[in-house]
Batch of 4 targets.
Target 1
Amino acid sequence: MAGLSSAEGLQLARQLLRPQLPHPIHDYILEGVCKALDGTNVLAVLKTGGGKSGYFYGYILLITALQTLSPRCTLLKRKFPANPAMVIIFPTKGLEEEMEAKFRKLSISALAINEDTLAEARRSKRNLWKECIKDLSLLLLSPEQLSSPSFDTLIHNPSFRSRICGLGIDEVHLVHDWGDPSFREAFRNIGLVHARMPRGTTLIAVTATLLAGRETDSLLKTLNLTPGTFFFQRRSNRRNDVQDIYRVLRHGLSGWSFPDLD
């Protein structure tokens, strides 16, 4: 069985996505998305501004589009629920809410849940966790929510659990960088959440900052990814539009203004 990551599958995926997006998706992102659709976990390292969010929206949009194909299509290696859902973990509330707006502009139902959105929902007598169960496509979470009783209840709710087909992690290098007990220990829970998902849930983890060698090896161990069992994309994160400018400071740093940086 060729799969969607074959040349024929990539061509089909591009055709299915084209009418749903305002611009063509990058070839390398489409390749990673199709690997994920074939059931292979994906770890992608690419520069800031390289389109990392495309892995997430491309995955969920294609799953929905694939429902229109004949069940006899030989490119499909797995079955997907009719109303798929994906859980995506973001490191900051601001990024969560920014991505929520971005996904909604693509006509994808998305909801950010963090302590701020939960507090606002309580004031208007809404239960965000219940709103996720039946119709939501993308659930965007802060790491702190992974250990909450509400999240545990949600992922064991039969209606929601049957829809889960993907787990996304943005800025995955922060699992270690920010996971120190003295800072945000909740990041350590990210490495365990995949095991709590239904069997067959595909992992898509992305970052712009992951050094080769010890740092990569440590992250793979945390995510329980062994070489040869996942698709690893490492692209250049060089930014030609960024320059290093060095200046000698001639003023103190104790005040509220910094004329040397003007």
Target 2
Amino acid sequence: MLRKTIPDVQLPDLNGNQVSIRDFRGKKTLIFMWASW
């Protein structure tokens, strides 16, 4: 899924501040998602 556009999502960082995917636009970013089933 390299170079795919994803929806603008806001999630809390470790300090509880909201961080938007848009904040990283133009930067190389790795988004690692996992789940425990």
Target 3
Amino acid sequence: MLDILRQGAQSWGIKILFGIIIAVFVLAFGMNRVQNDQTTVVATVNDSPILFRPFQERLQRSLELARSQNPNLTAEILAQMGFKRQILEQMVIEELMMQQAAKLGLTVSKEELAKEIHLIPAFQNESNVFDPASYQNVLRANNLTPGKFESEYMRGMVMDKLRTYVGLPGRLGEDQARDFYTYGRSTATISYLMYPWENYQNQVNATDARINEYYEARKANYAVPARAKIDYLLLTPATLADPAAVSPEETEKYYAEQKEQFKIEEQVKASHLLVRVDENADEESVEKAMQTIKAAQKDLAAGKSFAEVAAQYTEDPSGTQTGGELGWFGRGRMVKPFEDAAFALEKGAVSEPVRTQFGFHLITVEDTKSAGYENYESVASDIANIIAEDRAAEILQDRLDQALEMVLVGEPLDAVVKAIGLKLEIRESDYFTKNQGPRDLPGLSPENAQVLFDLPQDITTQSPLPIADGYLLATKREQVAESVKPLEAVKAEIVAAITRDEALKVAKAAADKDLELLLKGETLTGATVKETEPFGRQGTINGLGMNQLLATKAFETKSGAWLPEAYAFPEGYVLAKAIQVTPPADEDWAAEKELWLTSLNERAEEQTMQAFVADLRAKADVRITNPALLEN
């Protein structure tokens, strides 16, 4: 019911109360044996009581919600969180809000309440009209009475009115919202000089002394964690299965009875090239894209292969490497215009330009598959595996018991394999660490990976460890202690790091020297000046990378002026000159105005409400009258 009601109740106050009104009324969580009746007072808020029963209901509901989101929550974790006190604090805040609403004369009439309840889809019939019978049935199914439900729903509406009342002074007008929008959506452009560290690497030298110093200071970076290796035996339907024991008659019968399992849809194997253009692009952009498409068509007509042409023209990032190959796909996998064109093509043909929201495509179909069924011969071996694994699943527990009996009396894994027979084999894992279990054991939990790592040398697990589809038995074969890579093994890496670090220093010194001249109004001869694309205040600059300080200064510096320092990027240091700051267009504001007004006002109201509630809480007289109820 909670999910259904949420469809019709979006207000903040009502959302808070759903945890109460849908609560399970008879269960308790971890309560010390206290009197379980309506008169037990947990706490008072300005002399108003919070009673045991509502607290119990809220606690139980919150616990169910928390555990549904995190099944691993234990009593210890909940105790560390102060879970019970958190729930009580929520109820204290709500009581303070209701008290304040009463002081302000905020109420909800019966007519308002009825109107809101009538809008809840859970209580409406197929014609979307409130149905009293549905109302009664839904409440009854959730152990609620109309009186209880309406009381709590009205409480939520009152709190929502309080939130609106308190938040009104913090709401922004359109001009204020436009200022925020302009600030957030403006872009800056700079010209810049790059001083790549690679240009200065020949001016530095990584001496032996510097290499040793670097290595000693960063030995932790070169630590090799302790590692282990195991021999293991998998007991799963797949490892116990014996497909050779399945007769042709059995596979034929399975195929006949389960034929729908082998149904295949109509498919095409296609390639494409894409020239991107926005679906709302202007005529000039569309024409430019079409010229590129026509050039590609001309090359295809001249005899070039589709893969070659796609690699040259496509703007699909993966297409340049694959020749535009998309592989096999059925209907419903691609956008409709693309799908329709692909499935209409003959094998080997190339489509006319196809327009989608991504741009213009040229498509070629390499092969096709008609809808139908996979033939028996192509799936017979797969069917034999299915039948064999089904049989193996039935004997898995017996084989596991047999293996455990042998392991517990000290038999090695190879003896287990011989006794069980079939095609079981002992496998050897790669090295693994305490924090990263064997890569070839899917479904092994971190806890069980730890069990394997902690096994003593040559000891076999005394109980099976669950993995995907079955169980694992393992013997520790090797343990390698933690170590540090020797200097010689990492010397080349260290030399590269020192060279880069020192070259960056030289690059910065060169940039600083040139900046002094530029700030004096002098010009640099032979310097290559580049210009960025427009960028925002977040700090990411296309072609350079991330530098928040540069981005901030670019918005603050007047056009034509050099920024006051050299800025670091992965490639080197940059000197930058402000070109311009461009505010967003009026039409962009018109398109996004409502979204920004709503978002900014919600944030402003929330901040105002948080401050208001914090003030109420600070001034409130809250007394816990029954501390035993909050003990874990």
Target 4
Amino acid sequence: MNTLELEGNLLNMFVALALGGVEGENLFVPFDAWDCGIVYGGDTFSPHHDVAAIWPEVMRLRISTTDTGDGRWVVAMPTPPAGQSLPFPPYLCTNPLDGYRYAIVWSVFGSEVPDTYESVHFGLVNLVPYNKIAV
């Protein structure tokens, strides 16, 4: 799947994975109750509402935002993340948290994320249907 097309809890799941989340240790992904949200570090993980959940990584990656003056923002990273050949493209959005989340996922997974996930609780999960369910 295209990283920049991730939505809702699936995007949040990949953010948690990019931050070092490990299912069964500090990450719980409730595929059977998807609307309950992702649990990371013992708490409901809501980086789409809570900048503190991702701010240290935003700073570490030097992700920047520029106000375009019309209610939109451009989110960018200065260089391609280590191990990635493609730089994160400047991302135009109405909420910088969306751009931050995409940039964090891109920094680990690049432009494409896997279509499946090997869950410790649910086995091999096809992720495509979960991308259509918003937070």
